[in-house]
Amino acid sequence: MRAVRLSVVTAAATAAALAAVTGCTEKSDAAGGDGVIAVTATDTKCEVSKKEFPAGHVEIDVENKGSKVTEVYLLFPDDRIVTERENIGPGTSQKVTAEVKAGAYRIACKPGMKGKGIRQDVTATGGGKVAKRDPRLDKAVADYRAYAQQQADETLPKAKVFAEAVKAGDIEAAKKAYADSRIGWERTEPVAESFGDIDPKVDLREDGLEEGQSLEKDWTGWHRLERSLWQDKKLTDRDSELADQLITDLTDWQKRAGRAEITPTSMGNGAKELLDEVATGKVTGEEERYSHTDLVDFKANVEGAEKSYELLKPVASENDAALAKELDTQFAALNTLLDKYRTDKNSYEFTSYDKVGKAERKELSDAVNALAEPLSKLAAAVVK
Amino acid sequence: MTDTTNSTDSTKAADETEATGDMQESNSRTPSRRSLIGWGGAGLALGAAAAGGAVAMARTGDDAEPTAAESGAAVAFHGVHQSGIATPVQDRLHFAAFEVKTEDRAEFVQLLKDWTAAARRMAAGHTVGEGAYGGLAEAPPDDTGEALGLKPSRLTLTIGFGPSLFGKFDLADRRPEALVDLPKFAGDNLDKNRSGGDLCVQACADDPQVAVHAIRNLARIGFGKVVIRWSQLGFGKTSSTTPEEQTPRNLMGFKDGTRNIAGTETDRLKKFVWVGAEGPSWMAGGSYLVARRIRMNVETWDRTSLQEQEDIFGRDKGEGAPVGKAKERDEPFLKAMKPDAHVRLAHPDSNNGATLLRRGYSFTDGTDGLGRLDAGLFFLAYQRDVRKGFIPVQRSLAIDPLNEYIQHVGSAIFAIPPGVRDKDDWWGRALFSEEA
């Protein structure tokens, strides 16, 4: 958690400039014109009436001729969603509109509302020069988006186990489920934080409250429940409400994950920010001050950063081989060091952070600095 | 440290120009800016800023070269000896001790080369690497930027190698005999987290921000290879190597270092400070540094009568004259002092001639949680051989009544290699390239 988070948003804003103004404004002035694309969706096909259309206002008229409920997406090449329409029942039709700039796009139908969908490449023409894109970076972003979505998808059931335990008043079961429920979030926190409003609801720490805000009324999310479990050592009706609220907020995150503005630069910066999170919150023991499960978050932050790096590595290592070598070395060193704090390398049962001494914390901090410094150069290595 | 007010092409061109050793050598011989500009004892940082407005910047790139006095702000980085020892003592200190983390000798050698290049640039008043702005927008700038627009401020950067470094990189047989592990002295209460270190860098400058910028940027370059073990800020020099200046006072209010070795005393420097033919050869022209963090119980000291204070030091508080003498620089007559007076115990005549070049700074690291200042003296002393320098002197001080008011809480010793000769040379080259 961090109160102010700028760089993902600003990086994303820059990226948005090359893309489109999105939205589902129901303007009908394009009806029947060049900007109308008819999409015929079946259980096995996604047919489009045209593969090229002029940039500007577009309307996608979807007809579901299949037997399953479907969804239709207009996507950027890196899988970011321009616009979408869900829940299109068999035999029904829907319209979806967007303002798009010239460039490459994809239309995807998802029969059964599952998977990556059946895809068609389409192009919006005219409207000036189209920025040249590196397909390897588009792939990196698409893969990272899928990763972010997967983390959200996997978090929900774990969070529900935690929430149910809280609601059942089972303190021990809730404690056990707590740290595990946070892993997916911690791995992809910069993405979640880029939405702005979700992070303060689910991941606010006690020190994030300001004068006049109430511990009872204004503090929601994981850490409020952490305090109830470890500090107050009792669960109340309010905690049950908080557990439900947590699931509601995390469901919101899960739904929006696909819409996150992700660029190669924001992936690089996001990786660095995950290490910043470790350096300012986890190494100090501030993040999990009651449960002392900081090392679980620590590991998840590093894993998320490593995922971004691995996806960007094909381009980064070509542009700056020495940097890639250094990052390989330092990721390995930090992971080796973290392994000292768990007996089973496949488990997230880490040493309680209150048992980690001052000298050991310094050693962890040194290893974080050793990785974060070269990691701060990753974004530039990707774009140069 | 480029000129922010005027970042024209000519400025940049000038910034890229390496200041030559010769030019700086002449600067370093000029009288201190303190005496020239007439700074008061108070508000040194403000004084520096004000002076910056009045005196032309050295690097505006036009052909009106400022006089040596005006630009007496850069100290030669290249030389037979490292700067920061016999060169005039600046007003501020940031001292950092590092631990070496890398086990790769080539990587460590590269770090020493990278550090030397950065130090060379910073000493001349330049930014490190490709500067603090104007680079790729997606990348963090090479230089951290807080020294932009500040003068070189006589920045010196002095590197040292601690005993523990010689346990690494197969250096065991290169460890100088004189680089001993300091013995336990009476009254030592050393915090190991404020002691030792594989490496040290002493950054001295007239502007504290310039000194901090230097250590910060070296630490940043070092991430992944070295880590800071401890560091110390110092704000008021307690000794000078320029006797024509007023002798500075320590936090006990007494003039300190009146009879310190001056930068111009070539013979005494040769005899007491610089390593000579005794070897090892890689240390020729180098020295040994003892660093001690000495906490002062200033509150109890301030409750001590003037008579007792003066008796303890063996000098009077106002003039700084030795007991029975009128002037500060009058030759002390030791027998007139109390047998355990500080000056008497520490005097070369009481220690078989042992003489140290002192270069310490006062520090106040906030308060100690008990309402007392965490203040004292960060003692730095350079010498040719610690066994004939600091060790005997410190042993003599075992009965010093001053010990009631002070406590040594941090300690370190370093071999200070000789100077970086030219632009192709680097810190530690002789240690890492020559055969023993």
TrEMBL record, chain A:
Species, as recorded: Streptomyces ureilyticus
Protein's name according to its UniProt entry: Iron uptake system protein EfeO
UniProt entry tagged with the keyword Signal: yes
Keyword Ligase: no
Keywords from the UniProt entry: Signal
Main localization category: periplasm
Domain EfeO-type cupredoxin-like stretches: 16-117
Signal peptide residues on this chain, from the entry's feature table: 1-19
One Pfam family this sequence matches: Peptidase_M75
Family: Belongs to the EfeM/EfeO family.
Domain Imelysin-like: 140-378
Localisation: Periplasm
Origin: domain of life: Bacteria
